[in-house]
């Protein structure tokens, strides 16, 4: 009887845990909805399209009211933007900021789930010193305007940076900001830190590849494909893909300034599916590999080596091609969907295709808790693989060998141990470094066995 009671208490806990967890599942996958185009489908059709996918957040560059309205009651989180041109008035006039909130937020909130306002785009690297100096005051005024509308904390304020704010990014542990931008960044980061808003940045492995196409294995490293990895000589961490390396370089730069608590958001990342004949990198195959593998990587929740066990909020670039953008052909070829709402190529975003991977009800998996050290995870890995569990899938050539990180391998092994040892709560303990999750960590051909308790 006592055992039965214990069991139902755990069940009740898991039901709660699941309800909470499912609401949060995959909410780290967002998409950029740019509008420099003359052929886009109506916002209502776009809202339907988004609801048929596992995309749960959308970033607008402006604050088009038709789009914001079309997304009402969809549960989709919305990032809206104040244009660079609005910065001077926002900075100098609190009333302008209040009016901005009154016209762009108040009429739509909370039916339309506005979660973040980005002030300006890549301002710090724009060379416009006057605009750069006005960025923080503009953000502060918008924050004050939100506070007076009792929306402070509910809707965050930030800005978006290009990777050019980094002077050093390789190896990731040496990631540092440009000394000339340090003062301004210090102010902005102080704002992020105090208001709990994220540091938003645009890492593009595509551009890293483009600038150095002849480096050995660079394409595979940038596309999350099998490669021999790059060891960070300071930390001895072996990086298996460029995305993690870039995000961890940003993490190192933030940490080196003392802002360890400020979260990173990937505001844009993507890969063009076509380009001009003289462009290196764009192709349907590469775009599909990058975006598909990135999505699988995010869903696996292995995180990056410096931020294991959780996926950074990532907004894919982009929802549609923007046919009016200037520049080489690749600039107009980042779209995941065509104007007729069909996929440009399949990256596993449609709900139908991801449902195959989603669990039937009540299935649970054993996963590492966030923040557990590599040393502990390695100990778990050694323990499991030394106790007759088949660790073949995480050995070279196995379906779960990639990503080749201790976190990913330990996650696979710990779950397999739990599933094959009776699925008792104590089989998913590992000295309190593990927890049960209702999110299926499987990705690509790597299947994590699941089971109900
Ligand atoms: C970040 O905010 C926390 C809490 O408000 C504060 O204690 C800390 O000093 C801040 N960090 C920096 C580097 O300003």
UniProtKB/TrEMBL annotation:
Residues 364-448 form the X8 domain. GO terms for biological process: carbohydrate metabolic process. This is glucan endo-1,3-beta-D-glucosidase. It is an enzyme of class 3 (hydrolase). One of its GO terms (cellular component) is extracellular region. Its EC number is 3.2.1.39. Residues 1-25 form the signal peptide. It comes from the Eukaryota. InterPro entries: GH (IPR017853), Glyco_hydro_17 (IPR000490), Glyco_hydro_17_plant (IPR044965), X8 (IPR012946). GO terms for molecular function: glucan endo-1,3-beta-D-glucosidase activity. The keyword Disulfide bond applies. Belongs to the glycosyl hydrolase 17 family.
């Amino acid at each position: 009887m006592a055992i039965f009671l214990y069991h139902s208490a755990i069940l009740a806990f898991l039901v709660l845990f699941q309800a909470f967890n499912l609401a949060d599942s995959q909410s780290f996958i967002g998409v950029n909805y740019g509008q420099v185009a003359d052929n886009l489908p109506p916002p209502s059709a776009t809202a339907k399209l988004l609801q048929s996918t596992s995309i749960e957040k959308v970033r607008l560059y402006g604050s088009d009211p038709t789009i914001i309205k079309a997304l009402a009651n969809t549960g989709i989180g919305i990032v809206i933007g104040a244009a660079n041109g609005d910065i001077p008035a926002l900075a100098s006039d609190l009333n302008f900021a209040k009016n901005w909130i009154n016209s762009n937020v108040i009429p739509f909130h909370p039916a339309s789930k506005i979660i973040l306002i980005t002030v300006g785009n890549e301002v710090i690297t724009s060379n416009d010193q006057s605009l750069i100096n006005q960025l923080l005051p503009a953000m502060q005024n918008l924050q004050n305007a939100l506070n007076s509308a009792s929306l402070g904390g509910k809707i965050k304020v930030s800005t978006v940076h290009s990777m050019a704010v980094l002077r050093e990014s390789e190896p990731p542990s040496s990631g540092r900001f440009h000394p000339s931008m340090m003062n301004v960044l210090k102010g902005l980061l102080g704002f992020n830190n105090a208001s709990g808003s994220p540091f938003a940045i645009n890492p593009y492995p595509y551009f890293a590849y483009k600038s150095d196409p002849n480096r050995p294995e660079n394409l595979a490293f940038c596309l999350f494909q099998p490669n021999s990895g790059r060891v960070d000589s300071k930390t001895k961490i072996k990086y298996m893909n460029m995305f993690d390396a870039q995000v961890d370089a940003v993490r190192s730069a933030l940490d080196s300034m003392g802002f360890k608590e400020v979260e990173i958001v990937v505001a844009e990342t993507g890969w063009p599916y076509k380009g001009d004949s003289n462009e290196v990198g764009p192709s349907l195959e590469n775009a599909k590999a990058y975006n598909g593998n990135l999505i699988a990587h995010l869903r696996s929740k292995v995180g990056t080596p410096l931020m294991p066990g959780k996926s950074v909020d990532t907004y894919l670039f982009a929802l549609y091609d923007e046919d009016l953008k200037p520049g080489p052909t690749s600039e107009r070829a980042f779209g995941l969907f065509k104007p007729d709402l069909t996929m440009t190529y399949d990256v596993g975003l449609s709900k139908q295709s991801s449902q195959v991977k989603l669990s039937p009800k009540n299935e649970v998996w054993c996963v590492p808790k966030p923040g557990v050290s590599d040393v502990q995870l390695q100990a778990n890995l050694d323990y499991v693989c030394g106790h007759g569990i088949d660790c073949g899938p995480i050995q070279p050539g196995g379906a779960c060998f990639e990503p080749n990180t201790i976190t990913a391998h330990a996650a696979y092994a710990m779950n397999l141990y739990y599933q094959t040892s009776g699925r008792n709560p104590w089989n998913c303990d590992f000295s309190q470094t593990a927890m049960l999750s209702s999110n299926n960590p499987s990705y690509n051909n790597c299947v994590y066995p699941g089971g109900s308790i």
